[in-house]
Amino acid sequence: GRTPRSNPATYTGAFDPIREVFSLTPEARMRGYKPGRFSFNVRGGRCEACRGDGILKIEMHFLPDVYVPCEVCKGKRYNRETLEVKYKGKSIADVLEMTVSEALPFFTNIPRIAGKLETLYDVGLGYIRLGQPATTLSGGEAQRVKLATELARRSNGRTLYILDEPTTGLHFCDIEKLLQVLQRLVEAGDTVLVIEHNLDVIKCADYIIDLGPEGGEGGGRVVACGTPEEVAACPASYTGQFLHRVLEREKAEPAGR
C-alpha cells in the first residue's frame, strides 16, 4: 500500500534480494548480520531514534505538523553499525537513494534485482529513487509502480488491468515505453482497460468507447465506439474529430518522406 514505509524497492519485491546481497558481504558475514539487519522496519539495523523513518514529526499544535530529518541518522534510517557494511562501496542507505536508472547498472549481474528494476525503467520510472516513500509518488507514478510489479510476475493470460490516465506528466518518449509495456500484456493474453485523453494512447487501442459529448453533467453517454478508424469517422465525437487529424497526419507522413 501507499504508506511512508512503502517504496518502489519494497513494493516490487526488489528490496528482499538487495538485503540478501548485503548480508552476504564479507563484513556482514563476519558480524553475523542476516538480511533482517538491513530492514528499516525492525529493531537491530534501523535507527531507533526515528524507528527507521529517517524523519521526526514535530507537533505544532495549531499549525500543521512539521517533519524534519532525524538528527541521529541524518535521514539515513539505519544505525552506524549497519551503514558500515558496504557492497561495491555503497551502504544500504546509499542504494535506497539511487534512482532506478542508477541502480540498474549497479545490480546488472544479479538477475533477481535487475529484472525488477528493468520493469520500473520500462514503464518510464527510471528517475524515481528506490527508497522514495510511496506517499510522495503521484497517482500516475503509483499506478506504474503497480504495473511494473505485475510485469515482473509470470502472466497467466487471464488478468484485467484498469489504468486511470497513466500517462499524466509523462514525456512522449516515456509514453512510447509505456505503450510497449501495455502491448506486452495484451500479447500475453491479458486485457488492458485504459481511461485516457492522450491521443497517442487512444490511437493505439484495439477498441475505443468514447463517453460524452461534454464533460461532467453534460456527458456520460456513449457517443462512439469501435476501432480508432471507426471513432475517427464519427462526426458527433469530439475525440473522433481530433483522432481523425492524427490518423490522417500519420497516413501522410510516409508519403512526405
Q: Domain count, please report it.
A: 1
Provide the spatial order of strands within the biggest beta sheet: 1-2
CATH architecture: Up-down Bundle
Query: What level of helicity do the residues show?
Result: 40-55%
The tally of strands reads 6
What is the structure about, briefly put?
By secondary structure, the chain is an alpha+beta fold. It has twelve helices and six strands.
Could you outline the blueprint of secondary structure elements for this entry?
Elements lengths: L7 H5 L2 H9 L2 H6 L23 E4 L7 E4 L10 H4 L8 H6 L2 H7 L4 H12 L16 H13 L8 E5 L7 H16 L3 E5 L3 H4 L5 E5 L8 E6 L1 H5 L5 H19 L1
Explained architecture:
With 257 residues, the protein is an alpha+beta fold. It starts with 7 loop residues before the first helix and ends with a helix. The protein has twelve helices and six strands. The strands form three sheets. The protein has a two-stranded antiparallel ribbon. A two-stranded parallel sheet has the order 3-4. The chain has a single domain, classed as ABC transporter ATPase like fold.
Main attributes of the structure:
alpha+beta; ABC transporter ATPase like fold; two-stranded antiparallel ribbon; 41% helix; 257 residues
